[in-house]
Give the backbone structure.
Amino acid sequence: MPTASRDGTDLYYETDGDGETVVFVGDAGYGGWQWGWQYAAVTGPYEALVTDLRGTGRSDAPPGPYSVEMLVADLEAILSDAGVRKAHVVGLGLGGMVGLAAAQTTSRVRSLTLVGTAASGADVDADPLYGAPSDARALRESLTPALSDEFREEQPDVVERIVEWRAVEDATPDAWTAQTAAIADYDAGPLYEVTVPTLVVHGTADPVWPVEGGRALADGLPRGRFESFDGAHHLVTVERSRLVNDALVGFLESLDD
């Protein structure tokens, strides 16, 4: 099991495929399961690298609070351990903030795909997305803001599989509090400093990370472009997986033109 170590904290990651590296950085609370819909889409022409944020999955969960800067340093340690000099960073929610900050403060970022995120956490209350892993009912209820009513009604088997994965991989209450502290304290500052190509993806009905934040983020980035998906909630990567995968792969391929 590959792990990088930083400040005494073991950070789990896994890789598959060849070519340029696409690293997936997850949202607060969620384990690596959240990228199950995208991992295979990029594996082959690209190397897919999925990480578990400190506090989730197979990574250690030291006491918090955490910060975006701390998680950027974790990402750098993982890339270094994997022998990756530069990567295409795909981030969801908190992971998007980590990717954005990494592009501002490191030379590790080749491109950004920012999903359901914003340039500041000041107006984000992520608590509705959380359910304690030991409470299946809470996990199920916390998928209401993550997945639309239509999706949950049409795909009950998928919902139940997600609940099962979350029970194994998601953050404990203490780790959740540590991770969401990073969201609350984050402000990207001047976006003109982020000069890498950036795709911003958002569900139009995301009730936790409002779509207006995604639009503003894309508008503020020198090389940002915005793509939204009508009616999708926070986990647009699950609800509109095929369309999101097409947008992601198309964006990555366009960088080789």
